[in-house]
Design brief:
Elements: E1 5-10, H1 20-28, E2 31-34, H2 36-42, E3 49-52, H3 57-67, E4 73-78, H4 86-94, E5 99-102, H5 107-115, E6 123-126, H6 135-141, E7 144-148, H7 155-161, E8 170-176, E9 184-188, E10 202-208
Parallel strand pairs: 1-4, 1-5, 2-3, 2-4, 6-7
Antiparallel strand pairs: 7-10, 8-9, 8-10
Bound molecules: S-adenosylmethionine.
S-adenosylmethionine (SAM) binds near residues 83, 107, 150 and 177.
Length: about 210
């Protein structure tokens, strides 16, 4: 058995939004894997070897399996490490006992803090890399929910896929680039969903009925 692999929640954008424990784990790692953005933002100095995660997850997991006996490996993931995240695949690959998970702040948690509202009545779904989701069913079965988007499964895609009417009383908030200098949280009407200039990092908050 090798050393424990550490999965660290970072961001969702601002480098101050990481736990002290997460920061320490990054400093103690021999090898750090993460997206180019997370590595640039959260690894300061060249004390560790870095591995850029792109579309090469399987190869990287194999490589980590080879080195983990001797090296402390950290994976940087965005937000909550177990919410629609690579964190799940890492645990599946190496086993619960061989991983430590350090929580991070999810994009949706951050958005609700900015709105000064509780998210307790909301469910969370993801359209990120998931074009087969039954959106009409999701809209029908849930009065309040959050949708993680991606550059393809975006507002325009939702407008085209869902049949809604004005009378159903929907409220939409689009929250983009959360905790970054270009952060934007806007209320959008259903009519304007396909013309709103959203960013590639966005979530949609959906509410039907009462404000
Ligand atoms: C692979 S999921 C990761 C979710 C992440 N684990 C979390 O807890 O937020 C990536 C999606 O999360 C959302 N996201 C992540 N960071 C964001 C940010 N700073 N602003 C807006 N949305 C963000 C976007 O919908 C993005 O496509």
């Amino acid at each position: 058995m090798g050393k424990r692999i550490c999965i660290i929640g970072c961001g969702p954008g601002d480098t101050d939004l990481i736990t002290l424990k997460g920061k320490r784990a990054i400093e103690e790692a021999d090898v750090i894997a993460g997206s180019r953005r997370l590595l640039t933002d959260f690894v300061k100095g060249d004390y560790a070897t870095t591995i850029i995660l792109e579309n090469n997850y399987q190869d990287i997991l194999e490589e980590v399996d080879r080195i983990r006996k001797d090296k402390r490996v950290a994976f940087l993931v965005s937000g909550d490490p177990l919410l629609y995240s690579l964190g799940e695949s890492i645990i599946k690959r190496f086993g619960r006992d061989n991983c430590e998970v350090i929580p991070g702040i999810s994009s949706f948690q951050y958005a609700f803090c900015q709105l000064k509202e509780s998210w307790r009545d909301y469910r969370v779904f993801s359209l990120h890399g998931n074009k087969d989701m039954d959106l009409n069913k999701t809209f029908k079965e849930n009065k309040r929910f959050i949708l993680l988007l991606d550059p393809k499964q975006n507002l325009k895609f939702i407008k085209g896929a869902v049949k809604l009417t004005h009378e159903q009383g929907y409220t939409f908030y689009i929250a983009s680039n959360l905790s970054m200098p270009t952060e934007n949280i806007s209320r959008v009407s259903f009519e304007d969903l396909d013309s709103f200039p959203e960013e590639s990092l966005s979530i949609l908050i959906v509410r039907r009925g009462d404000e």
